[in-house]
Design a protein that fits this description.
Elements: H1 41-48, H2 61-72, H3 76-87, H4 132-142, E1 147-148, H5 150-167, H6 173-190, E2 197-198, H7 199-208, H8 226-239
Helix pairs in contact: 2-3, 4-5, 5-8, 6-8
Pfam families: Peroxidase_2 (PF01328)
Family: Belongs to the chloroperoxidase family.
Keywords: Heme, Iron, Metal-binding, Oxidoreductase, Peroxidase, Signal
Amino acid sequence: MARRRVSFFGLIVAASVSAFLTEEEFPWKPPGPGDLRSPCPGINTLANHGLLPRDGRNIDLEVLGEATALGYNMEHNTMLAVGIPALTTSTTGNSSTFHLSDVDQHIPQVIEHDGSITRDDKYFGDSNSFSHAAWGRALASWGDIEIIDFAAAAREIKARFEWGEANNPEFNATFARTGSLLQYALLLSAFGDYGNANMTLVRYWVEHERLPLRLGWQPPVNNINSTMNRLIAANISALWV
C-alpha cells in the first residue's frame, strides 16, 4: 500500500535574519565541576557555547528564548513548547527559572523520556548522561549513510522502540513517541533542509554537544517553527510502521 507523504511544497516559512555565529564570539567549553547539564544535547550545546549560562543554573524563558533563537534560529513559540514544561520541573526555588538538570525528572515525565536517541532509559539508572550504547544503536540503525532522511529516521525510531520494549519492562512508548519525534524535528531542521540532515554535522553536534561551526555550519536561514515540526513528525510517522 502506498504511503502518503505530507508535502512541504507551497508552505511559506517565515525567514529571519540570523546572526553569524563564530567560535571566537561563542567559544565552546566543556562543562566544568559543578556545572549542570540536561538529557537534551540541544540545550546542553547552548550552555557549552555560553549562549545559556555555562553553569546551567537559573534559566528563565527570556534567556532560553534568546539562546535558542541565536543558536538554532528557533521561533519563540516553538521554544515555549519546551520551556514552559521545563519550568514545572524547577528545583531553583523560583517558579520562573529552572536548572538544566531539573528536566531529567522522570516521574511525572515532562521532557525526559524513554527511548532517547542519546540517553539510557531511567529504568537502567542514569538517564541524564550521554550513553555510548544508546547512540551506538542509533548509528547502527542508520547504517552507512551520509544523509538522514525521513525513511532513515523512521527505521531508526522503529528499531529503538523495539529494543526499549524488549529490554525495559517500564518502557513508556506513548510519551517516548512525542519526545522522539521532537528530537528529529530539531535534528532535521537545524542540520538539514527540514528533511535531509547531514550525518557529519549531526554526529559532531551529538558527540561533542557542540555547534558544528568549525565545519562551516550556521543556523538555518528559515526558522525552526511548530508548523514545520508537525510536518516533519507526520512524514516520519507515515513511514514508522
